[in-house]
Write a structure and sequence with these properties.
This protein is mainly beta. It is built from 4 helices and 12 strands. The chain has helices at 2-14, 127-134, 141-144, 298-319; strands spanning 45-59, 64-78, 84-99, 106-125, 155-165, 178-191, 195-204, 212-221, 227-237, 243-255, 258-267, 273-286.
Amino acid sequence: MNNKHSCLLFFLLFSFTYVSAQYTETLNSNRPGNSQGAFSVGRNVLQFETGLGIGKEEHSILNTETNVFTFDYSVRYGFFKEELEISLIGIYQSNTITSTLGNVSNEIKQSNFKSNTIGAKYLFYDPYRKRELEGPNLYSWKANNRFQWEDLIPAISIFGGANIDFADNPFTPETESSISPKLVLATQNNWLGGWVFVTNIIVDRITTDYPSYGYILTLTHTPTDWFSVFIENQGIKSDFYADQLLSAGTAILLSEDLHVDASVLINFKDTPSRLFGRIGIAYRFDMHDKDEYIEEKGKAGKANRDEKKGKKKNKNKRKKRKDGF
């Protein structure tokens, strides 16, 4: 366990990630963490995020040692509205298990999709858009660069998806092929100084005999515009699998549309213990042709739209010639 703690300390001090947000001039990725940010990739943006992972698991009761290899992938596309994106997110895993019960050593190999989810995410509350419309305080630099209570109000989105599980899968609780729902409530706070705090509340496979509940807390910091650091805690509660995971990692922005990343993960139990590392890449095809603004909801949004229409009509009246031509 001491070696695992040393690895974690190293990555906490010298590792980074890139922050998720609404459409920006540079790529925004959920990698290398496991949480989803509240914002989409942006309308007409197609983004691929993928990585390879290796790790080791040791089970103290079963006396097994497992070498793990994973390939994870995410395809995200923003369409129709700035607030909406659809995605395919999954992990393919291969295990080589060595059992040392008694004097006989057996080796077992397993491989299948650990998860495979098709879904959509919609941003239904964005406090930062309202602040952008209000503009900065022109009379006080201090007021614009200090903590305010409204900074605690996050952007909020909902993800709904379907898990596609295959038969005879050692990584899922059901023995037969099945489709089950997954729901995620995602919040995101963007704080001054390059700090971002993301939370996910997860309800998974609720129509099966083994529903799963969990959370993810991710804190990131961007010291510069080309790299950042994160630390993440994930909790999973289910009759099939329960755990507490702690991870950290780094991502470096190589261009506006490309970044590479690395991360490490550990847990704090021995049934099994886990030490895991990942490297990955994210790339986007940016077809975002024009900036779009998310309209305010409710009476405030209606009043704003009516005001714009009124200004447009007045402008047209001024252009009309008095002689009738």
